[in-house]
Each structure stands twice: as C-alpha cells, then as structure tokens.
Amino acid sequence: MKTYDAIVIGGGPAGMTAALYLLRSGVSVAFVEKLSPGGQVLMTAEIENYPGFPKGIQGWELADLFAAHLERYPHDKYNDAVTAFEPAPGANRVRVGDEWITGKTVVVCSGARYKKLGLPDEDRLIGKGISYCALCDGNFFRGQKVGVVGGGNSALEESLYLAKLVANLRLIHRRDEFRGCKCYQEKVQSAPNIDIEFSSVVRKLHGDNGLTGVTLADVKTGEERFLPLDGLFIFIGFEPVGDFLPDGIDKDPQGFIITDTEMRTSLPGVFAAGDIRSKACRQVTTAVGDGATAATAAFTYMEQLDA
User: What is the mean pLDDT of residues 35-51?
Assistant: First the structure.
C-alpha cells in the first residue's frame, strides 16, 4: 500500500490548485481523478469572469492551462473512482478502484453534478433529447427548437451559448424573475431567438425514441399546455459528488461538506475545497481560492504531525 503526505480527490480547479500548492511545498501527492482534469469547467463554453482573461476563455482551454501547470511537478496520478474512505488521524485510507492508498492528509475536491428534474422518463431520454451540458450536446440541435430549465447563472450562460446554434430557445423558469447576474439577464432578454417562460415548470416529458416536447404548467394558475421541443437542457442546481464520504464527516442537509474558513472538516487532517463544500458561491475563482487555502491548511497540519 503506497503512502503519501496528501491525497487530493478530484481534478477540477479546486483539486488541481490544491495539488499544485502541496507539490510546491515539497510533499508527496496522490492526485485522484477518474476522468480528464477540469471538472465542470470542461462543460462550460466560455468563461468571462475569470481574472486575467478580459476577452474570456473557453472552459477546456483554462482546464488545459491548469493541468499543464500541475504537470511541471512530479506526482502520482490515479485515474479511477474513489470507492471507500476510512479516516484516521495521520493515516487516512482511500480505496481508488480496487487499490488502497494512505495519506497523512486528504483534500476532498470531488465537486458537484447537475440536479435532475426527477420526472418519469427523464433517465430514459438522456441522450435522446435530454441533456445537462450545452457544450457537450448543443451541436446536435443546430437549427432546432430547444428548451432550457433554470434561472441561475448556469442556465443563463448556457442559454446564450445554445442561442448561437438553435433556431429557437424557450427559457423556462419557475419564478417570475431570474436569480442570475444582471449582465446575463440583459443578454438573454435581448437575444432575438430566446423566448422566456416565467412562472412555469415542466410537468411531463413526451417522446418514445426521442424527446418531442414537454407539458408546461403555470405555477400561478395551474394551467397546463404542450410545448413542442427537440431538446431540453436542465440547469436547476447541483448535488454533491460524495458517495464515498465517511459517516463521521459533517455535512449540510443537501449533503455538501461543512468546513471552517481554512477548509478544515470535522475530521482531523481532512479538508474540502470547491463545489463539494457547503457554500453559496460556486465559481472557478472560489474553487481556486478554496484549493489554495485547503493545501496551506493541510501543510500546516502535516508540520504539526511531525513536530
């Protein structure tokens, strides 16, 4: 069983930053990411609010820059899922696939995934009209009619991206105003091929071999109507990726890890950073800050262990 000073779980901006800071401190690091490094950034078309890129940058480009920076420092990479986590002060055991590794500290950066509507046939229609990633699937709907569900920044950003590809887009939001940034709201409201369905929810999905439309319901009147669509993109928030988390770690009611300002969890030597944390703002900038803070706190913890 290999032993490391730190095990970083997750390869998004938080995980890559945490690993970078730890490696620069001279400690041994196991970097665990079952997919390609980048996390949610890889599913973002263009990032306009990351400092240093006034003209914006494609999500995959920023992820590649993060990964290239990290590659300058030798470390062990594990490309598999974490299937178990047994915490113990100074000797945390983590199973990656079928292999166990040990770390004096663990930094959990496993992120979050998009929530589903929870409707019948939703899972059956994934890849057949239902999607949670505009960048991944937008090209399949060129010149067609699509819907987007949501009212936060993700929904507005993805709508603007999709509007460049599709003939018409219906933006469906259950409230009578958006929660996203004003700059995105203004762009969405001025887009010629975006129609907004305020105070509306999707009640039913239609289609056998592929999505043909949805039943919309007015939340104020209860009135229902059929809306023909070729595709539906869902951006209604996130849920944590943390099936492997041990029972002893404190989480909020939604399952996100509770930390202090130094990213310390309720377990000694275990830290959390990025979207897996219980917090209000989930952006690339906050993930990077979390990762740096967690790495610094983890290094301090290791120094105290060795004192």
Answer: 86
